[in-house]
Amino acid sequence: MNLIWTNLRVPVEEDERQLPLMIARKLKVSQQSISNLRILRRSVDARKKPQLLFSYTLGFSLDIPYKEVNRVLHRVADLKPEPQIMAKPLMKPEKNLKHRPIVVGAGPAGYFAALTLAKGGYAPLVLEQGDDVETRSLKVENFWRTGQLDTESNVQFGEGGAGTFSDGKLTTRIADPRITEVLETFVEQGAPPEIRFLAKAHIGTDILKIVTQRLREKIQSLGGEVRFRAKLTGLRHQNEKIIGVEVNHQEVISAEAVILAIGHSARETYRLLLAQGIHLEQKAFAVGLRIEHPQKLINISQYGVEFHSKLGPADYQLTYQDTTTGRGAYAFCMCPGGKVVAAASDVERLVTNGMSEYRRDTEIANSALVVTVGKDDFQGKHPLAGVEFQEHWEHQAFLAGGRDYKAPAQSVRDFLAKRVSRDFLLPSSYTPGIRPVELHGVLPQAVGDVLDRALFFFDRKIQGFAGEMGTLTGIETRTSAPVRITRDKAGEALHIQGLFPAGEGAGYAGGIMSAAVDGIRSAERIMAQYNPAD
């Protein structure tokens, strides 16, 4: 019988290869009766630090008489039969596409939509306004070094999407069977196998670039096409149906199925969509600062030791509910062993973000500390008021940093005292550099006030968090899309049949995994309506 064992706690020092023997002893069965052992999930239990445990969810087959299995199940509360997943019958659509489907955007939503379509024989066309990941990486490095920004190809735009220059986190709050498909695809294309079971899995920027390139090659090998420097400059729709797209103001490509996977920073595209009658609405998001600490400080707080070879650098999750304003503050995109990077996509606007490579070995921990903002903070009811809010504060940060993409920065203690920092005990990892500034001046007042109180609260959770070894840089604004492209129950844009908004840019996902899953769903919706073009 196939079984699932949850909450099996084992000291981290134990050899994982001994798990079959441990299970056999706990169940009082022979080790030979256990086969097909799979680690489905592994997380760290540090509640009794420095005594550290791994908490496992395991799947395995138990080959003993049925009556004995029942006795084992009765004796072990966290042991259950593995659920059976019933495959849904496939329904063949009645209509054929006349043209190949188009996917706009080569981030997680776009590439997984395209891969799903390609596997089904639909030969999708992917349009990406930025460069391939190799060329894009060179342009990003050049921007960090010189301040020369390519507004079409940068940390936000280009093959792989914004997540390419991040920690490559694969955590998500959604529960969807497609998550397994996404993880397996990542592993097939070069991601580390442990992402299948780690509770806080990540790939890292360095490996994610390789995986992204291989995803492209897989799509192409299945009959798909990927075009770079191919910017969406218009939609063609007639009688409330999509009939094609315009690219680079020059070419019109016919299509009756288009997936919009444009990413959360596609401001120019949002304006285009609004001008062409696509329904958009404001959406809440969060803004704030990046905070950096020595990684050892976080390790000691979370694990009770400066370093543990089996655990790697520690992370944290922090939330705060402000009783004065009702706003939430939280740590976002925490990057252990990473660095803070320049993430601008518009000229004269400054944005920070965090990034880690797979090894997470910089000895610097960083995270965004952000506060929720919404309709009451924006100027008016215009659908793009949140975009304009972002642009205003990014420009203020650009001016404060000296107009050369250096980030305005302040020590945590000086931020709380509202004075410009003279010395930074922890040099910032941000490139192209920092400039001492009183950061309350580059934040909405309500956000700065809540961060003051949140920092004191977080310091009670992690000793030293608001101490002298913390550095703040600003501004962080791209936590999620400030817009939602409204869609109906069929996943299509309101009143435009055949147009499928997907992923973070559409306002329906947050992070690599949920964006990828939403892209797959959009592809499945097309496949449920149409057969491939002849």
List keywords for this structure.
single chain, 534 residues, alpha/beta, Alpha-Beta Plaits, FAD/NAD(P)-binding domain, 3 domains, 7-stranded mixed beta sheet, 5-stranded parallel beta sheet
Number of domains: 3
Overall SS class: alpha/beta
Alpha carbon gap, first and last residue = 46 Å
- CATH-wise, what's the superfamily of the largest domain? FAD/NAD(P)-binding domain
Strand count:
25
Task: Report the CATH topology name of the largest domain.
Answer: FAD/NAD(P)-binding domain
Strand order of the largest sheet: 15-16-19-14-22-20-21
Individual helix count: 12
- Biggest sheet, in brief? 7 strands, mixed
What share of residues is helical? 25-40%
Q: What spatial form do the alpha-carbon principal axes imply? A: globular
**Rg, Cα atoms, Å:** 25 Å
Sheet-strand content, in percent, reads 25-35%
Mean pLDDT rating: 95
Domain FAD/NAD(P)-binding: 102-268
GO molecular function, one term: oxidoreductase activity
Domain FAD-dependent protein C-terminal: 284-479
